[in-house]
Amino acid sequence: MRRLAPMLLAALAVLAAACEKKTQPTGEAGGAPSAQAPATAQGGGAPPAGDDVIVLGEVGALTGGQATFGISTRNGIALAVKEANAAGGVKGKKLVVRVYDDQSKPEEAAQAVTRLITQDKVVLILGEVASSSSLAMAEKAQAAGVPMITPSSTNPSVTEKGENIFRVCFIDPFQGFVMAKFARENLKLNKVAVLQDNKSAYSIGLTEVFRQKFAELGGKITATESYSQGDTDYRAQLTAIKKTQPEGIYVPGYYSEVGIIARQARELGLKVPLMGGDGWDSEKLFELGGSAIEGSYFSNHYSPDNPDERVKKFIADYKADNNGAVPDALAALGYDAARVAIEALKKAPDTSGPAVRAAIAQTKDFPGVAGNITLDAKRNAVKSAVVLKVQDGKSTYVTTISP
Amino acid sequence: MAVPGATTLSDETAGRVPPALRGILPVLIAVPVVVLADVLLNTSPFATYLLSVVGVNIILAVSLNIVNGMTGQFSIGHAGFMAVGAYIAGVTSLELKEVALSFLPVAASDQVLFTVALLAGGVAAALCGFLVGLPSLRLRGDYLAIVTLGFGEIIRVVVQNTEAFGRALGLSGIPQYSSVAMVYFWVFLVVLVARRIAGSSHGRSLWAIREDEVAAEAMGVDTTGYKVRAFVISSFFAGIAGGLFAHFVPIINPGSFTFVKSMEIVVMVVLGGLGSSTGAIVAAIFLTLLPEGLRSLFGALGAGGSLAQKVDQIRMPVYGILLVVLMLARPQGLFGTKELWDVLPRWLPRKKKGMS
Description:
By secondary structure, chain A is of the alpha/beta class. Chain A folds into 2 domains: 51-170 and 314-383, Rossmann fold, CATH 3.40.50.2300; 174-300, Rossmann fold (3-Layer(aba) Sandwich). Chain A is 45% helix and 19% strand. In chain A, the strands form 3 sheets. Chain A has a 7-stranded mixed sheet, with helices on both faces. Chain A is elongated. By secondary structure, chain B is an all-alpha fold. Chain B has one domain (2-257): ABC transporter involved in vitamin B12 uptake, BtuC (Orthogonal Bundle), CATH 1.10.3470. Chain B is globular, with a radius of gyration of 21 Å. The relative contact order of chain B is 0.16. The chains are: A alpha/beta, B mainly alpha. At the A-B interface, helix 1, helix 2, strand 2, helix 4 and helix 5 of A face helix 4, strand 2, helix 13 and helix 14 of B. Chain B: It comes from Corallococcus interemptor.
């Protein structure tokens, strides 16, 4: 027994190491053996020939701090792929998704994406949610010339990594544009004050675009006040804002501060609606803001209440596949990302990196469940956003704003 | 793997090698092997990445072993020192990105600057090690564990709130200078240093502290001094490991240097056997390749459809179960305090007996 344990251990170590080495040559030689592995992975009654499948790669946080994001995204992607396969696949081949977990860590994401590219020879990569993980992956995908689509990383720097990196969500500053348009055209406001979070690049980015667009549309910004994340008293700024008699206040911060700001604004007698971005998107907002936040508006990626037929069908299909769970914004964006990818694969003359990249870049007015997607020259999605209204302690769909 | 092999050889053949060569023999063998490995692997990015991760983990485990194994102290903040090295080296490299030494070709000058950045990271980490170690190593037992734990968390929170370090999003755009050769050159250095310490009078004092601190002090060993020195050396190499890490991972982010990372390194040292450098190496290789190995294994078994998606999540529990089983079967770790070449002859069939 004493001798057995170490021997067993050594055997295991050799096994683990050997597994690596076996796949290594396929990375260099390429071709048939590596295509074989995904085919067997598909299992069941799938035909054994490696040529009959197209392999997509996905990296997501299935464990760790952001696991709910990763799992929602994965479910959305799985639904899109299932639908595509039911409709006959792409170019007569079935689609297979290889999903690797990155434990919510960027270095694991880089490792997983390298494995997808060199070992599994994927034609395209989907992921991640967190911008830091997406940045790590983008660097590797760009270097290898494999197209990558991130469903929901909104930080502008992600697609700046190179021509192979795309996203199907809007970037942070776009929400400023959406709210300016909504305030001016739907709410018909003339005078609006701004209260921004000075510590957050997100808040400053939204404010800048909002001010510019609102003035362009003929409105007037009466005051711009600032606070810092973590403050608890906003009465001085709100009093200064009150003096200018605005018809609305733009507060593009996070829900934790916005809830308190709403309460203190009402205390000071400011009854005008507040407006914000997806930083408001949390159940906590209604807890913190209570009745004070009622009647306020914020922009978001997607709403399950959207009466659009496509959205209704997506929700029904998603519920059927996932024990009745209602898809969140991340599931919707994952679904859209996968459908954009599949559409591009259909259009591309072959599945090589440059061909697929070119096909993705041509995506125009693609009907996604989280808005119509057009990719611009910077590979960011130009798409509609939804505006939600806080009503009876929950957010309800108001309208869709297109760029 | 080339590196421990090289030192083994130097020990075994010590009797036959001319005295003048003994000091540099490991260098003569290890450096060409490392460079050759780098050239051979150039075409396989995945193997390069994986080997780099393995190398960094070896450096971390072997350096932690100097404190936890040889000196018998319990430090659980190694990821904190790694973070210091990673961020200092990363920022240095970012600053020097546009700079090149005029008298060298660009590639060579990059490597020189990379070495400078690494050393900056290592020295910064060593300084932190000194500052943390000096007050806390006067204490005995569990206190060091608590202090190092606190230090690791402080570093993470500081980074998270510093604009220059990229806050929570992380630091990206660090030039990717690292290569297998560079990583394994440092692996070689840390193993050499650890082995030399273990065999020196300095090392004997560390062993004495580990076995009985009071007795060591009674014998005239300056316990605090030895402990602090061991701790500083260990922190220096952790900083180097962090610096290397920052130059092959495209983005470094506070989430990579949490308490969990510290515990991973402690697990490697304990699994390998407290006090055994080669044990730490074998455990680091094993534990780093295990998750990827399981990925390949499940793939090869043909886990179909939805199961294929689930196996990726099963990897971590399997990893945990293996650890439990290993510790139950062999509580003193793989090698105990022995080194690979002390244990290997007993495991192998008898015909190899002549080797030892």
